[in-house]
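Figure-free illustration: sequence to structure, shown twice.
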Amino acid sequence: MKRIFYVLLLLTVMVACDSDDNDMGDLINSGGNTMEAPKGVFVSDAHPTSGTATVNEAITNLALKDFKTDDGPLLLLYLSTEVDSQEYVDLGELKGLDGDYNYAIPAGTDIEKYKYVVVWCVDFSVSFGHAELK
């Protein structure tokens, strides 16, 4: 009877330790930093748009690198839940059409929810281009 009890106990411990959800082990092995800085590559929508968008690890800054797009009447930069920008965080007017630029991300912004960076033309309600942050 004791032998069966010990075998069942051993099996229970082995199954519990053999979980794919070994979060504590992952945290220990990576020094507590399991998430890379989200980054995306711009693709064109209504106008040619290119470059990369990168969020820093503290989620306080969005950097556009080698960014390029066409001019428009009023272009804003959004963090959005989708490309159509129905739900978004406004990062302000586009600082330039060609180059490297930085934008402050408001405190408390959920970067997993707002996973698209969108160059939005207000006057025509259209995306010039977007990058999906991954």
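We now fold a second protein in the same way, so the two outputs can be compared directly.
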Amino acid sequence: MSEVPVEPPRAGDEVSTLVGELERVRRVIAWKCGGLGAEGMRVTVGASTMTLAGLLRHLTLVEHDVFRRRLDGSALGPPWDGIDWDDDPDWEWRSALDEDPGALRAQWREAVAESRVRLARALDQGGLDQPCRGIATEEGESPALRRVVVDLIEEYARHAGHADLLREAVDGLVGEDAPREGIDV
């Protein structure tokens, strides 16, 4: 996984297809959240309070949750471990409104870079069939890495749809796939 794919291969194996799709939806998020200042990152649509700023912070948390906590039981680390989630369950969405957009994008990119390393290491050590040691059902069963990666793709895809609506409301940018060049993830 030394070169980050732009999209899944047309006829690849399971790992390259899943990783390629994950990278594709990450690129869509980067594209939809790219180049905006604070005002654009805070735009809402309709009755929703969702913003692109909150979406980026949320996906940063999701990257850490999946590839730290769920994968091997590692601690989430700062700032996540200092949040009283019972008192403020929407902290990542709310707190992002006060954050510099460049800092939000950088934090997300750093989380993605760490996740790539952790995923590559996990794939090298046990492949998609290995159980994720950080989570389990009440019966003690842990999902396979394959399931966790598929769940992450679904999370990104759902939020890519939200990002489509939000970005269109900001400046009319529309489109399904990010340009092949000029997108930094």
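Summary for the second example: The helical segments are 14-33, 38-41, 52-72, 91-95, 101-126, 145-171.
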